[in-house]
Prior knowledge:
The complex is a heterodimer of chains A (209) and B (396). Chain A is globular, with a radius of gyration of 18 Å. By secondary structure, chain A is an alpha+beta fold. In chain A, 42% of the residues lie in helices and 17% in strands. In chain B, 41% of the residues lie in helices and 14% in strands. Chain B has a seven-stranded mixed beta sheet, with helices on both faces.
Amino acid sequence: xxxxxxxxxxxxxxxxxxxxxxxxxxxxxxxxxxxxxxxxxxxxxxxxxxxxxxxxxxxxxxxxxxxxxxxxxxxxxxxxxxxxxxxxxxxxxxxxxxxxxxxxxxxxxxxxxxxxxxxxxxxxxxxxxxxxxxxxxxxxxxxxxxxxxxxxxxxxxxxxxxxxxxxxxxxxxxxxxxxxxxxxxxxxxxxxxxxxxxxxxxxxxxxxx
Amino acid sequence: xxxxxxxxxxxxxxxxxxxxxxxxxxxxxxxxxxxxxxxxxxxxxxxxxxxxxxxxxxxxxxxxxxxxxxxxxxxxxxxxxxxxxxxxxxxxxxxxxxxxxxxxxxxxxxxxxxxxxxxxxxxxxxxxxxxxxxxxxxxxxxxxxxxxxxxxxxxxxxxxxxxxxxxxxxxxxxxxxxxxxxxxxxxxxxxxxxxxxxxxxxxxxxxxxxxxxxxxxxxxxxxxxxxxxxxxxxxxxxxxxxxxxxxxxxxxxxxxxxxxxxxxxxxxxxxxxxxxxxxxxxxxxxxxxxxxxxxxxxxxxxxxxxxxxxxxxxxxxxxxxxxxxxxxxxxxxxxxxxxxxxxxxxxxxxxxxxxxxxxxxxxxxxxxxxxxxxxxxxxxxxxxxxxxxxxxxxxx
Lengths: 209, 396
């Protein structure tokens, strides 16, 4: 797995992959304040993130994780678990895969989608914490908006498709089947596509090789 | 101390045989165009024809039945594309309709070509395989009819190593009047292959899987079988494949095949022993593993194994850090979201396919290599399972 004689991932990725931090070991007892469980093994990746919270200050004091995932998932969640310690809940909630990729130095572009699971699980854990503590007012529901009425495709699905590598409307169709019936949504879908490409892939360390 | 390097990904490609390397170096001096009439051209022509004879004799064919092509993929594309030509004016098919029968476990170069032909109006049928990857012969019989232009079934699978009963399949196909092609890229040079005994009409092989150079392969085209070139515009290869011959590649292929003829039988025995030792070592030292593919009708050096709760790309990269090169059926390694189509076709659940690893050994692998893998692999699997959401040890 080397490119041009070098490791395809950065040294930081390699380090976190070889020595993952804050792993929740199988069978380990951990009294978490919030837990997020996303993905599933059938799709090839699953992630569990657990957090402890200083309830007075609203700060994450500890974070552990467990995954069925590839090298990128392992490394990105390992670094994420370090980043969020001591971080206010709101700030942690808003971390994006781009922030993690920046911290990691670089990730090959086609591996970005493997790294989104960690922050997704973290958001689920934070929401879980809010629920457990009667702070429903703080819950952030990630509302999905229907873009393609015919094939039932939402903006979230378009974002996921971009993370999976879609860069053109045609590629978006290959993945989501969007706009394959009446085609009315093409301008809006293309606008969102470009927006998500910009959001996740512009000016990051996500080096395309 | 230098880290030990163990290459066990021979189904992906192989290192050059030292004898091939030497032959290539010599051949570099002779740069002539085999089509030229002068001395340099004649030398190049002799080299090309010498390689053709070696290839033909290894397969039990005659030299004029061998056409050199740019790769196994090109050979496979050629056969499917020309025989399923959807043009009404095509003289190849005559009364037979544009219909193709192939299997669900073929190499992507067959599957993608089939799908492209389907888009152009060709009917394509995909025959299923059983849990070991063996083609369902009853279903094959149902699929092949008077409209079938060509049936293509791979001789040995690149991922799980399962070897098909090509002779029986060829009989079924011929019994229904269709033409039969086999993609033997993984088989030729690893197991005995004789085109006459097997009764195939077309066969594809590739040099770089058998210690030859990349970018060269050959297509066996049985005499009197309908054929037209895919690459047009030149008289080369008796008008069957245009383009100046890759003389260097052809020399390399010829030498690689000559060495296979000398070494294959003994090597196969040795690889079977190595594989048995590897399998035993894995079974003894790692719990919750499954071996995939056919237990006996399998390429000598290929071992495909699934590890519960461990993702394949992570296994591959941890092994890579220990100097061990293998490959995986996990989606994450392929850049797509789906795990190996071959493993899924055998009925394997997706989660098991994601955790599968293909170990393919070859001529330079030793007992020490196997011992090293058996020593490293348990730690790697334990490390991954330790952080896995999908692996739960049985409560003792």
